[in-house]
Design goal:
alpha+beta, MetI-like fold, six-stranded antiparallel β-sheet, 14 helices
Length: 541
């Protein structure tokens, strides 16, 4: 036995088995996320289901499970099963999903004429077409096939008109509203002066009048475009209920039971791109997550720009300049302890210090005309990024100090012996050598910051941001704005959604994208670190 322990074979197998178990757990987690996430984009066939009680409906079978039985059931009783069906048509039935016992099903078929319509509101509609109603004064197109062809012909025109309406609302009218708000605040600032200049007041009012006139022109153009909207389809559900659906409400439609292999893959990539680039809708349970992706990446970048220099400078001072002793040891212990402080504590500090103190002071000095509505004295992407920078600074400090400790003292002494100053030695010799360690700390900091949610909930993140922190208005980067974040989006969809079953796939898909973003940011930093290491090794030769 003594020989067995001294050889250490047991510990080799133990560490190998532990590593294997850890890798399997990570792989299982990724498999579940990828399977449920990517499966959200795959088109499923829609069944026509007839029940024994006479009910019938269209629906997509989502999953099947055995019905739990009580201990009082006699042994030998056959097990029963049930299916979970997405029946859609929430505006008619009130719910999207229902469970159906398999022994209650009389028949289940997959007719090719069933149409799935994705709508701006009320989710998907499963049904067939009874008639298409076009422009006023034209006769309805009756019959499923004829109505389907008419919808294919007219829907692109309606989408084009709707696109022009959105372009005017977000473009021309958005610009006018921006300038009107600026002029209004400028007028208010002039009036706050003890002796306001009448000429300046008249000039601003003239600008407001011109903007108001321009607004009315765009408003007239919007009315004209809205008057060009027309058409609807009269759709029929599986149990014969009719629903008139305006063309403006239809995002797209398709017949999943007619899809071939390539049709399914084409639909998959279309839905994937839609999810990646579009804005969310229907309480974040439908549409895309682009604002959340943009907010997450921008927040991590801003956090890195603040956390890295602060952590590196602190580490260099502690290792290169500070006199080693009790005080420096206490500082190092404090830094290590900061890494274990709950993130919500940093969030509370961010609210008190960054938002109320610094932001409130900025508002009182530079934006008094906007008060009582705060500009910087409320949550925003800048304060959230600074809060996470404080949260991750200890990681950067520790990683940088470890790298500094690994740089041989003889290298520093050789540089000083050749006549370089201490600063030149640190800048030209030590800093390049420790750069891989700095990037290691940055990688760990980005990974932690990208997944944090608690401090963001009170420092600037919101369920739905009306505009991105970047736009075409000066100064282009609006760091005072609130933003969306993938981590908070997962929390909101998974735990705050009124439609849990519809939201569950969104949780997996958003989680998948958050993992991909973290991996992308980490791989970029790792590639840069490896390049620097290779450069240093070559220069050493």
């Amino acid at each position: 036995m003594k020989k067995f322990w001294s050889k250490g074979d047991f510990f080799i197998w133990l560490t190998g088995a532990t590593l294997s178990i850890s890798l399997l757990m990570v792989a299982a987690l990724l498999f579940v996320v990828v399977k449920n996430g990517l499966g959200f984009f795959w088109p499923g066939e829609v069944a026509s289901i007839q029940l024994k009680d006479g009910r019938s409906f269209f629906g997509e079978v989502i999953e099947q499970e055995e019905i739990p039985v009580s201990t009082e059931v006699k042994e030998g009783t056959p097990l029963r099963s049930r299916i979970k069906v997405k029946q859609g048509n929430r505006d008619i039935y009130g719910i999207d999903f229902l469970w159906v016992d398999n022994d209650q099903i009389v028949s289940k078929s997959y007719p090719e004429d069933i149409v799935v319509m994705e709508r701006l509101e009320w989710g998907d509609f499963f049904g067939t077409f009874k008639e298409f109603r076009g422009k006023e004064g034209t006769a309805p197109v009756k019959g499923h096939s004829a109505a389907l062809q008419a919808l294919e012909k007219h829907l692109p025109e309606i989408k084009k008109i709707a696109g022009k309406i959105r372009s005017i609302e977000k473009g021309e009218i958005g610009v006018i509203n921006h300038h009107m708000e600026k002029s209004r605040l400028r007028l208010k600032k002039i009036n706050l002066d003890p002796s306001p200049d009448p000429a300046s007041i008249a000039e601003v009012k003239k600008e407001l009048d011109a903007l108001t006139a321009e607004y009315k022109v765009q408003e007239t153009a919007l009315v004209q475009l809205r008057n060009q909207l027309y058409g609807s389809v009269l759709a029929v559900t599986g149990d014969g209920k009719e629903k008139n659906i305006p063309l403006l409400q239809i995002v797209h439609f398709y017949q999943p039971n007619t899809f071939g292999f390539f049709d399914k893959w084409g639909f998959f990539f279309m839905k994937f791109a839609e999810f990646l680039w579009e804005d969310p809708r229907e309480s974040n349970t439908e549409g895309g997550i682009f604002p959340a992706i943009f907010g997450t990446v921008m927040m991590v970048i801003i956090m890195s720009l603040f956390a890295t220099p602060l952590g590196v400078l602190a580490a260099f001072y502690l290792r290169e300049y500070a006199k080693q002793g009790t005080f420096v040891s206490i500082v190092r212990i404090a830094v290590n302890n900061l890494a274990g402080v709950p993130s919500i504590v940093f969030g509370v500090f961010g609210v008190g210090f960054f938002i109320y103190f610094i932001g409130g002071t900025i508002d009182r000095i530079f934006y008094p005309e906007a008060l009582p509505t705060p500009t910087y004295g409320t949550g925003g992407i800048l304060w959230a990024s600074l809060t996470l920078a404080l949260l991750t600074v200890p990681v950067v400090i520790v990683a940088t100090e470890e790298g500094l400790a690994a740089v041989p003292r003889s290298i520093r002494e050789a540089s000083l012996a050749l006549g370089a100053t201490k600063f030149e030695t640190i800048w030209r010799v030590v800093l390049p050598a420790v750069m891989p360690s700095i990037l290691t700390g940055l990688i760990l900091a980005m990974a932690r910051a990208a997944g944090e949610v608690a401090p963001l909930m009170i420092t600037g993140v919101v369920k739905l941001a009306p505009s991105l922190p970047v736009d075409s208005f000066f100064p282009f980067f609006h760091l005072e704005r609130k933003f969306m974040h993938l981590g908070f989006h997962i929390y909101d969809v998974g735990f705050q959604s009124p439609n849990v079953d519809a939201a569950r796939p969104m949780v997996y898909t958003t989680t998948l994208f958050l993992i991909l973003i973290v991996l992308f940011l980490n791989f970029a930093a790792i590639a840069l670190r490896n390049r620097i290491r290779k450069k240093l090794s070559v220069s050493a030769l």
